[in-house]
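Case study.
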Amino acid sequence: MLLQDTTIAVLDAATTAGAEPLERAMTVASKTPVVLAVVLVVWLGLLTLVLVTERRLARLERHLDDAEGAAAPRAGS
Amino acid sequence: MLHRAAPLPVPTSTDPLALPRYGRLYHAFGALVAAWVTGVLVLALTRPVANLPILEQTARNLYFHVPMWFVLYAAALVGAWHSARHLATGRVLHDVRAEAAWTVSVAAGVIAIVTGIVWSRYTWYLEANVWWNGDPRQTMVAVQLLIGGAYFILRGSIDEPRRRGRLSAAYALFATATMPFLTYVLPRRMASLHPGAEGNPAFSQMDLAPQMRGIFYAASAGFLLLGWWLYTQRVRARVAELRAERLAEASTPSPTATFS
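After joint prediction, the assembly is written out as follows.
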């Protein structure tokens, strides 16, 4: 109850009264779900980058294996 | 015109650029790390924390800020080991591994110092409204990161690979040797608001709330494993680059072997 009487809480309520649902979610006093959502979006972006790099590296390594395998007998002959 | 190609090393275990096979186990490890860190992130931001005055919900930053230091130290030690091995053996692969380890170490250090700056801004300096106040530990860590960053400047300034490898390996050993003094010994002897400083303990039985301990350990393990995953990727990428260069050199006719 004490928290609700503070100026910040009153301002929060006033600014979010006519807001859209997403806007309300972003401006409520407890922003932990919003922080979690942002952190997960950033993390999933990074994870996608790592996984794409992983796939590209695996493809490149296979290609290099093939190229070295083909070039080695030529170099030896 | 007859071109004679330069001899190409057959890709065997004696190949100086040979890496262990990254097969199914490695991919399973990657999936495990991805799931583990995702779980840690969710738990870190949803489970209750010790809601202490001043710290309040910022205590959750512990799960991100401190493990990054662990990654920095672990990667720097790996880098130092491979630098020493490169100096002893001259093997290119050790130089590649040292560079990759230092990349992960410095990247983790940058994340750690940024999370630390933001954390201190909204706790220690809330009333003062400043982002940086010359705290001994923060300052020493910034110096350490500059020393780490100089490693890459040194590498970038030398073109000849053998000389670059040896000089940067020697420098990496120096940079690692300064680490305990700059980030541990000196800050502990100076007054600071940072936990772990004189009269301000850290991570004893009393300093970490029991409900936070499990997530903190899980976060530390998760970020260390993530650091290792990124390190292996960096190594593989650099080795692939070197192999491609070697192939290109081998297919280019050398001037002495060209007959008109």
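Observations recorded in class. Chain A has a mean pLDDT of 76. The interface with chain B takes residues 32, 35-36, 39-40, 43, 47, 50-51, 53-54, 57-58, 60-61, 64-65, 67-69, 71-72, 74-76 of chain A (CB under 8 Å). We will return to this complex in the next lecture.
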